[in-house]
Design goal:
By secondary structure, the chain is an alpha/beta fold. The chain is built from twelve helices and 14 strands. The protein has two domains: 238 residues, Rossmann fold (3-Layer(aba) Sandwich); 70 residues, Alpha-Beta Plaits (2-Layer Sandwich), CATH 3.30.70.3400. The chain is globular and about 75 Å long.
Length: 323
Protein backbone atom coordinates (compact mmCIF):
# COMPACT_ATOMS: atom_id res chain seq x y z
CA UNK A 1 0.00 0.00 0.00
CA UNK A 2 1.24 3.48 -0.94
CA UNK A 3 0.55 6.29 1.53
CA UNK A 4 2.35 9.17 -0.18
CA UNK A 5 2.85 9.44 -3.93
CA UNK A 6 5.10 12.17 -5.37
CA UNK A 7 5.10 12.42 -9.17
CA UNK A 8 7.23 14.80 -11.23
CA UNK A 9 7.05 17.58 -8.65
CA UNK A 10 8.88 20.82 -9.40
CA UNK A 11 8.89 24.09 -7.50
CA UNK A 12 10.20 27.42 -8.75
CA UNK A 13 10.17 30.58 -6.66
CA UNK A 14 9.76 33.44 -9.16
CA UNK A 15 11.42 36.80 -8.87
CA UNK A 16 9.32 39.10 -6.69
CA UNK A 17 8.13 42.45 -8.09
CA UNK A 18 10.38 42.43 -11.18
CA UNK A 19 8.72 45.49 -12.77
CA UNK A 20 8.99 47.55 -9.59
CA UNK A 21 12.63 46.57 -9.12
CA UNK A 22 13.35 47.42 -12.72
CA UNK A 23 11.66 50.81 -12.31
CA UNK A 24 13.71 51.50 -9.17
CA UNK A 25 16.88 50.20 -10.85
CA UNK A 26 17.27 47.50 -8.22
CA UNK A 27 19.01 44.20 -8.80
CA UNK A 28 16.64 41.56 -10.17
CA UNK A 29 17.65 38.13 -8.96
CA UNK A 30 16.79 35.13 -11.14
CA UNK A 31 14.02 32.72 -10.22
CA UNK A 32 15.05 29.94 -7.83
CA UNK A 33 14.33 26.35 -8.86
CA UNK A 34 13.99 24.57 -5.52
CA UNK A 35 12.74 21.21 -6.86
CA UNK A 36 13.04 19.63 -10.27
CA UNK A 37 10.97 16.62 -11.40
CA UNK A 38 10.98 14.84 -8.02
CA UNK A 39 9.27 11.44 -7.91
CA UNK A 40 9.07 8.70 -5.30
CA UNK A 41 6.55 6.85 -3.12
CA UNK A 42 6.32 6.13 0.60
CA UNK A 43 4.73 2.86 1.62
CA UNK A 44 2.33 2.40 4.50
CA UNK A 45 4.30 1.84 7.70
CA UNK A 46 7.60 2.82 6.08
CA UNK A 47 10.16 5.22 7.52
CA UNK A 48 11.57 6.95 4.44
CA UNK A 49 14.68 9.09 4.77
CA UNK A 50 15.48 12.22 2.78
CA UNK A 51 19.06 13.48 3.00
CA UNK A 52 21.00 16.27 1.35
CA UNK A 53 22.93 19.42 2.04
CA UNK A 54 21.32 22.64 3.26
CA UNK A 55 19.34 24.20 0.42
CA UNK A 56 18.97 20.91 -1.46
CA UNK A 57 15.15 21.09 -1.37
CA UNK A 58 14.24 18.91 1.63
CA UNK A 59 12.21 21.55 3.48
CA UNK A 60 10.45 22.72 0.31
CA UNK A 61 9.31 19.18 -0.48
CA UNK A 62 8.15 18.63 3.10
CA UNK A 63 6.08 21.82 3.03
CA UNK A 64 4.47 20.84 -0.27
CA UNK A 65 3.39 17.47 1.14
CA UNK A 66 1.98 19.28 4.19
CA UNK A 67 0.05 21.65 1.82
CA UNK A 68 1.83 24.72 3.22
CA UNK A 69 2.95 25.63 -0.29
CA UNK A 70 1.86 24.38 -3.71
CA UNK A 71 4.07 22.83 -6.38
CA UNK A 72 4.73 24.65 -9.62
CA UNK A 73 4.08 21.40 -11.48
CA UNK A 74 3.58 17.74 -10.69
CA UNK A 75 1.28 15.99 -8.27
CA UNK A 76 1.38 14.78 -4.67
CA UNK A 77 -1.27 12.53 -3.17
CA UNK A 78 -1.65 11.38 0.43
CA UNK A 79 -3.84 8.34 0.93
CA UNK A 80 -5.10 8.94 -2.64
CA UNK A 81 -6.12 12.55 -1.87
CA UNK A 82 -4.56 15.29 -3.99
CA UNK A 83 -2.53 17.84 -2.00
CA UNK A 84 -3.97 20.72 -4.06
CA UNK A 85 -7.53 19.68 -4.87
CA UNK A 86 -8.12 18.02 -1.46
CA UNK A 87 -5.78 20.09 0.69
CA UNK A 88 -8.10 20.20 3.73
CA UNK A 89 -8.36 16.41 3.80
CA UNK A 90 -4.62 15.97 3.23
CA UNK A 91 -3.87 18.39 6.04
CA UNK A 92 -5.94 16.23 8.41
CA UNK A 93 -3.94 13.15 7.41
CA UNK A 94 -0.49 14.65 7.94
CA UNK A 95 1.40 15.47 11.11
CA UNK A 96 4.26 17.95 10.66
CA UNK A 97 7.13 18.71 13.03
CA UNK A 98 9.79 21.08 11.70
CA UNK A 99 13.21 21.90 13.09
CA UNK A 100 12.33 25.61 13.19
CA UNK A 101 9.04 25.64 15.09
CA UNK A 102 7.28 29.03 15.13
CA UNK A 103 3.57 28.23 15.39
CA UNK A 104 3.22 27.75 19.15
CA UNK A 105 1.79 30.48 21.36
CA UNK A 106 4.61 31.61 23.60
CA UNK A 107 2.44 32.90 26.47
CA UNK A 108 0.45 29.67 26.76
CA UNK A 109 1.72 26.71 28.72
CA UNK A 110 2.83 23.52 27.02
CA UNK A 111 -0.45 21.84 27.97
CA UNK A 112 -2.58 24.81 26.87
CA UNK A 113 -0.83 24.87 23.50
CA UNK A 114 -1.58 21.22 22.83
CA UNK A 115 -5.17 21.62 24.01
CA UNK A 116 -5.61 24.54 21.60
CA UNK A 117 -4.33 22.49 18.65
CA UNK A 118 -6.42 19.49 19.73
CA UNK A 119 -9.55 21.64 19.46
CA UNK A 120 -8.47 22.68 15.96
CA UNK A 121 -8.27 18.98 15.13
CA UNK A 122 -11.87 18.62 16.35
CA UNK A 123 -11.02 16.58 19.45
CA UNK A 124 -13.31 16.81 22.48
CA UNK A 125 -11.68 18.19 25.63
CA UNK A 126 -11.86 14.94 27.60
CA UNK A 127 -10.33 12.96 24.75
CA UNK A 128 -7.73 15.67 24.14
CA UNK A 129 -6.62 15.85 27.78
CA UNK A 130 -6.24 12.08 27.95
CA UNK A 131 -4.21 12.06 24.75
CA UNK A 132 -2.04 14.99 25.93
CA UNK A 133 -1.34 13.21 29.20
CA UNK A 134 -0.29 10.12 27.27
CA UNK A 135 2.07 12.15 25.09
CA UNK A 136 3.60 14.00 28.03
CA UNK A 137 4.34 10.62 29.58
CA UNK A 138 5.88 9.26 26.37
CA UNK A 139 8.06 12.30 25.78
CA UNK A 140 8.98 13.00 29.43
CA UNK A 141 7.22 16.36 29.41
CA UNK A 142 5.12 15.97 32.56
CA UNK A 143 7.20 18.42 34.58
CA UNK A 144 6.88 21.03 31.83
CA UNK A 145 3.12 20.86 31.31
CA UNK A 146 2.44 24.04 33.30
CA UNK A 147 5.36 26.09 31.98
CA UNK A 148 4.97 28.74 29.32
CA UNK A 149 6.29 27.80 25.90
CA UNK A 150 8.65 30.80 25.99
CA UNK A 151 10.37 29.32 29.05
CA UNK A 152 11.15 25.95 27.45
CA UNK A 153 14.58 25.02 26.21
CA UNK A 154 15.16 24.47 22.50
CA UNK A 155 15.18 20.71 23.00
CA UNK A 156 11.90 20.73 24.93
CA UNK A 157 10.29 22.92 22.28
CA UNK A 158 11.34 20.32 19.76
CA UNK A 159 9.75 17.53 21.81
CA UNK A 160 6.55 19.55 22.13
CA UNK A 161 6.50 19.97 18.34
CA UNK A 162 6.69 16.19 17.97
CA UNK A 163 3.87 15.83 20.51
CA UNK A 164 1.68 18.18 18.51
CA UNK A 165 2.47 16.36 15.25
CA UNK A 166 1.33 13.00 16.62
CA UNK A 167 -1.50 14.40 18.76
CA UNK A 168 -4.36 13.29 16.43
CA UNK A 169 -2.58 10.02 15.50
CA UNK A 170 -2.18 10.90 11.80
CA UNK A 171 -1.35 8.12 9.32
CA UNK A 172 1.48 10.20 7.80
CA UNK A 173 4.25 12.00 9.70
CA UNK A 174 6.71 14.54 8.31
CA UNK A 175 9.63 14.83 10.72
CA UNK A 176 12.28 17.45 9.99
CA UNK A 177 15.34 16.66 12.12
CA UNK A 178 13.30 15.23 15.03
CA UNK A 179 16.31 14.80 17.35
CA UNK A 180 17.89 18.17 16.66
CA UNK A 181 18.81 20.04 19.90
CA UNK A 182 18.01 16.99 22.05
CA UNK A 183 20.52 15.61 24.53
CA UNK A 184 21.81 12.08 23.79
CA UNK A 185 19.35 10.31 26.12
CA UNK A 186 16.35 12.29 24.87
CA UNK A 187 17.45 11.70 21.26
CA UNK A 188 17.61 7.95 21.86
CA UNK A 189 14.13 8.02 23.45
CA UNK A 190 12.86 9.90 20.40
CA UNK A 191 14.33 7.32 18.02
CA UNK A 192 12.70 4.52 19.99
CA UNK A 193 9.38 6.38 19.85
CA UNK A 194 9.65 6.77 16.07
CA UNK A 195 10.39 3.08 15.67
CA UNK A 196 7.37 2.22 17.83
CA UNK A 197 4.85 3.76 15.42
CA UNK A 198 2.87 1.06 13.65
CA UNK A 199 1.20 1.50 10.25
CA UNK A 200 2.40 5.11 10.15
CA UNK A 201 4.23 6.38 7.07
CA UNK A 202 7.10 8.69 8.00
CA UNK A 203 9.20 11.03 5.89
CA UNK A 204 12.27 11.83 7.96
CA UNK A 205 14.88 14.44 7.09
CA UNK A 206 18.04 14.64 9.15
CA UNK A 207 21.70 15.61 9.02
CA UNK A 208 22.43 12.78 11.46
CA UNK A 209 23.24 10.12 8.88
CA UNK A 210 23.81 7.33 11.41
CA UNK A 211 20.30 8.05 12.69
CA UNK A 212 18.89 7.88 9.16
CA UNK A 213 20.69 4.60 8.58
CA UNK A 214 19.26 3.13 11.76
CA UNK A 215 15.67 4.30 11.33
CA UNK A 216 14.97 4.29 7.60
CA UNK A 217 14.19 1.32 5.39
CA UNK A 218 14.84 3.41 2.27
CA UNK A 219 16.65 6.69 1.69
CA UNK A 220 16.51 9.28 -1.09
CA UNK A 221 19.47 11.55 -1.78
CA UNK A 222 18.49 15.01 -3.01
CA UNK A 223 20.96 17.47 -4.49
CA UNK A 224 20.17 20.86 -6.01
CA UNK A 225 16.47 20.02 -6.10
CA UNK A 226 16.84 16.67 -7.86
CA UNK A 227 16.57 13.14 -6.52
CA UNK A 228 19.91 11.51 -7.33
CA UNK A 229 19.38 8.05 -5.81
CA UNK A 230 16.79 6.01 -3.88
CA UNK A 231 17.56 2.69 -2.22
CA UNK A 232 18.13 0.96 1.10
CA UNK A 233 21.09 2.28 3.13
CA UNK A 234 23.19 -0.88 2.52
CA UNK A 235 22.56 -0.73 -1.24
CA UNK A 236 23.43 2.96 -1.35
CA UNK A 237 26.72 2.25 0.40
CA UNK A 238 27.49 -0.44 -2.15
CA UNK A 239 27.11 2.08 -4.96
CA UNK A 240 30.11 4.05 -3.70
CA UNK A 241 33.71 3.02 -4.03
CA UNK A 242 34.10 0.17 -1.54
CA UNK A 243 37.24 1.41 0.17
CA UNK A 244 37.65 0.25 3.74
CA UNK A 245 39.70 2.25 6.23
CA UNK A 246 41.85 0.06 8.50
CA UNK A 247 43.68 0.75 11.74
CA UNK A 248 46.05 -1.88 13.18
CA UNK A 249 47.04 -1.19 16.79
CA UNK A 250 50.23 -2.91 17.91
CA UNK A 251 53.15 -2.92 20.36
CA UNK A 252 56.62 -4.44 20.52
CA UNK A 253 58.04 -2.68 17.47
CA UNK A 254 59.44 0.78 16.83
CA UNK A 255 57.95 3.38 14.52
CA UNK A 256 61.11 3.51 12.38
CA UNK A 257 61.11 -0.26 11.84
CA UNK A 258 57.44 -0.26 10.83
CA UNK A 259 57.90 2.68 8.48
CA UNK A 260 60.91 1.08 6.77
CA UNK A 261 59.27 -2.34 6.60
CA UNK A 262 55.91 -1.23 5.19
CA UNK A 263 57.18 1.35 2.71
CA UNK A 264 57.51 -1.34 0.06
CA UNK A 265 54.36 -3.24 1.08
CA UNK A 266 51.75 -0.47 1.40
CA UNK A 267 51.61 2.36 -1.15
CA UNK A 268 49.93 4.77 1.29
CA UNK A 269 49.84 4.48 5.07
CA UNK A 270 50.20 6.65 8.13
CA UNK A 271 51.39 6.00 11.67
CA UNK A 272 50.04 7.22 15.01
CA UNK A 273 52.40 6.87 17.92
CA UNK A 274 51.11 6.95 21.50
CA UNK A 275 52.93 6.22 24.75
CA UNK A 276 52.20 2.48 24.75
CA UNK A 277 50.97 1.62 21.24
CA UNK A 278 51.60 2.29 17.57
CA UNK A 279 48.78 2.44 15.00
CA UNK A 280 49.12 1.72 11.29
CA UNK A 281 46.39 3.36 9.15
CA UNK A 282 45.69 2.57 5.51
CA UNK A 283 42.88 1.95 3.01
CA UNK A 284 42.12 -1.21 1.10
CA UNK A 285 39.58 -2.85 -1.13
CA UNK A 286 37.42 -5.38 0.76
CA UNK A 287 38.65 -8.99 0.48
CA UNK A 288 41.86 -7.99 -1.30
CA UNK A 289 44.04 -9.91 1.17
CA UNK A 290 46.05 -6.82 2.08
CA UNK A 291 44.93 -6.77 5.71
CA UNK A 292 45.96 -10.36 6.41
CA UNK A 293 49.28 -9.93 4.63
CA UNK A 294 50.09 -6.76 6.60
CA UNK A 295 49.25 -8.36 9.95
CA UNK A 296 51.37 -11.42 9.14
CA UNK A 297 54.27 -9.24 8.03
CA UNK A 298 54.15 -7.12 11.18
CA UNK A 299 53.89 -10.19 13.43
CA UNK A 300 56.88 -11.74 11.71
CA UNK A 301 58.83 -8.59 12.53
CA UNK A 302 58.12 -8.97 16.25
CA UNK A 303 55.06 -6.81 16.58
CA UNK A 304 52.16 -7.86 18.82
CA UNK A 305 48.80 -6.92 17.30
CA UNK A 306 46.41 -5.64 19.98
CA UNK A 307 43.41 -4.69 17.87
CA UNK A 308 42.22 -4.19 14.31
CA UNK A 309 39.60 -1.54 13.54
CA UNK A 310 37.82 -1.27 10.18
CA UNK A 311 35.64 1.57 8.96
CA UNK A 312 33.27 0.75 6.10
CA UNK A 313 31.65 3.32 3.75
CA UNK A 314 28.82 5.33 5.35
CA UNK A 315 25.89 7.36 4.04
CA UNK A 316 28.16 10.40 4.32
CA UNK A 317 30.44 8.86 1.69
CA UNK A 318 27.39 8.22 -0.49
CA UNK A 319 26.10 11.77 -0.04
CA UNK A 320 29.48 13.28 -0.91
CA UNK A 321 29.65 11.19 -4.08
CA UNK A 322 26.51 12.91 -5.42
CA UNK A 323 27.66 16.47 -4.75
Amino acid sequence: MISVSIKNVSKTYPTSFPRLKNFLHLEIKPAVEALRDVSFEIKTGEIFGLIGRNGAGKTTLTKIIATLIQPTSGKISVKNFDSVDDEVTVRSLVGLATAEERSFYWRLTAEQNLLFFARLYGMKDATARARIGELFEQLNLNELAGRQFSELSTGNKQRLAIARAILPKPPVLLLDEPTRSLDPLAAEDMRELILSFKDVSILLTSHNLSEVERLCSRVAIISKGEIRAIDTPPNLRRQTKQTQRVKIILTGISENVVRESLSSKLPNFSLENSIETLSVNFEREPDDGLLGETISFLAAGGARVIDVETDNPTLLDVLESYE
